[in-house]
């Protein structure tokens, strides 16, 4: 049984993770003689074609138990609500990003994750960086831990002629993610100084949007910064295909799926040096300095764009497409059978 409670939150990283892993498991589970039941809400269950869906009830929120027919339980999120006792279990920890987000009570968050670790039998990290954080800040005892990289979602739909929310009229930089301070988007408007480019940020907005626009006003580029809200896959495909570069200055990432998505389009990639991003971007990406000195960021962008124009991007695209969800699903199936 896999906890898919997070499938109730559309347009989030965990929503995408759950759907992509589900589709891949449907393709490979027979290879491993595994039958999977998905624990989720009534509404979210409509997204799953599997006949093996267990709907979350009010009683589950009071006292959660699984049927005796279940051999292994997988909690694919470090702070999942449902964690049964007395059954072999896998815990996926995506990140300990609260260590880097300026949270007031880090100890409280560590304690919450530690309680899940104490209950599980096997831990999965989604990057070597995440594994390093886990081993440093949590007490694993003798429990095994393994890195299983996420797959990358590659758009298979029809190309649209123009995006729904906003179509840039000039060359543009593109970024995507929930508009929160940890994404560090406010350092980006400086990249529009002394050129005619636009900046398009796609993601659910928050009051942090004000900080981004304040920085844009500082550089006199507020008319070329667009925070467009969440977008569907077809629009995301358009922005990846047409952007001059993908920029992702995040301070806290357990993995960084948008990086691989953008790479698969053969676009130039500009990242921060923080958390897992250098691990995923490798030598294919360009990196802003750790302090995001605005003048240095401008140099990295301008020089990177010139250098990238003469690059053969085939190795970059091949690298991005090596991260498949089928590989991810097979690694999980091996763990399930091991337990």
Give the helices and strands, then pairings.
Elements: E1 2-3, H1 13-28, E2 38-40, E3 53-55, H2 58-62, E4 72-75, E5 88-93, H3 106-119, E6 122-125, H4 128-137, E7 145-147, E8 172-176, E9 198-202, H5 209-218, E10 225-227, H6 233-242, E11 245-248, H7 257-264, E12 269-271, H8 277-281, E13 286-287, H9 294-308, H10 314-321, H11 325-338
Parallel strand pairs: 1-2, 2-3, 4-5, 5-6, 6-7, 8-9, 8-11, 9-10, 11-12, 12-13
Total count of strands? 13
| CATH domain fold name of the largest domain | Rossmann fold
The figure for the number of domains is 2
Fraction in beta strands: 5-15%
Q: List the total number of helices.
A: 11
Q: Could you tell me the mean pLDDT?
A: 93
Strand arrangement in the largest pleated sheet: 10-9-8-11-12-13
Question: Any idea what the radius of gyration is?
Answer: 21 Å
* Head-to-tail CA distance between termini: 13 Å
Structural class: alpha/beta
Give the CA-based shape.
globular
Q: Which sequence of SSEs, written as H and E, runs from N to C?
A: EHEEHEEHEHEEEHEHEHEHEHHH
Could you describe the largest sheet, including whether it forms a barrel?
6 strands, parallel
CATH class of the largest domain: Alpha Beta
CATH superfamily of the largest domain: Glycogen Phosphorylase B
Could you please describe the fold and organization of this structure?
The chain has helices at residues 13-28, 58-62, 106-119, 128-137, 209-218, 233-242, 257-264, 277-281, 294-308, 314-321, 325-338, and strands spanning 2-3, 38-40, 53-55, 72-75, 88-93, 122-125, 145-147, 172-176, 198-202, 225-227, 245-248, 269-271, 286-287. Helix 1 (13-28) packs across helix 11 (325-338) and helix 7 (257-264) packs across helix 10 (314-321). The mean pLDDT is 93. The protein is an alpha/beta fold and 339 residues long. It has 2 domains: 2-151 and 324-338, Rossmann fold (3-Layer(aba) Sandwich), CATH 3.40.50.2000; 172-321, Rossmann fold, CATH 3.40.50.2000. Helix 7 (257-264) links the parallel strand 11 and strand 12. The chain is globular, with a radius of gyration of 21 Å. The longest helix has 16 residues, at 13-28. It contains 11 helices and 13 strands.
């Amino acid at each position: 049984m896999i906890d898919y409670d997070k499938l109730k939150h559309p347009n989030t990283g965990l929503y995408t993770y759950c759907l992509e892993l589900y589709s891949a498991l449907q393709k490979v589970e027979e290879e491993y003689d595994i039958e999977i039941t998905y624990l989720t809400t009534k509404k979210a269950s409509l997204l799953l074609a599997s006949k093996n869906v267990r709907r979350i009830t009010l009683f589950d929120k009071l006292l959660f138990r699984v049927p005796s027919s279940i051999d292994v339980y997988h909690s694919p999120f470090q702070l999942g609500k449902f964690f049964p006792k007395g059954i072999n279990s896998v815990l996926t920890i995506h990140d300990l990003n609260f260590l880097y987000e300026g949270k007031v009570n880090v100890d409280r968050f560590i304690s919450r994750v530690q309680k899940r670790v104490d209950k599980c039998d096997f831990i999965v990290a989604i990057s070597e960086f995440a594994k390093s954080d886990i081993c440093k800040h949590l007490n694993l005892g003798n429990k095994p831990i393994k890195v299983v990289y996420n797959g990358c979602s590659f758009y298979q739909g029809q190309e649209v002629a123009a995006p729904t929310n906003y179509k840039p009229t000039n060359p543009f930089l593109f970024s995507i993610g929930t508009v929160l301070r940890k994404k560090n988007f406010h350092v980006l408007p400086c990249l529009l100084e002394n050129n005619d480019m636009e900046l398009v940020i796609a993601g659910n907005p928050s009051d942090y949007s004000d900080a981004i626009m304040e920085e844009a006003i500082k550089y006199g580029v507020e008319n070329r910064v667009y925070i467009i809200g969440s977008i569907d896959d077809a629009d995301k495909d358009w922005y990846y295909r047409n952007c001059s570069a993908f920029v992702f200055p995040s301070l806290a990432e357990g993995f960084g799926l948008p990086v691989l998505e953008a790479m698969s389009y053969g676009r130039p990639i500009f990242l921060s040096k923080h958390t897992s991003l250098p691990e995923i971007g490798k030598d294919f990406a360009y990196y802003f300095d750790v302090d995001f000195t605005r003048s240095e960021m401008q140099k990295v962008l301008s020089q990177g764009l010139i250098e990238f124009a003469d690059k053969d991007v085939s190795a970059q695209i091949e690298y991005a497409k090596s991260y498949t969800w089928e590989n991810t699903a097979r690694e999980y199936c091996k763990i399930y059978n091991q337990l």
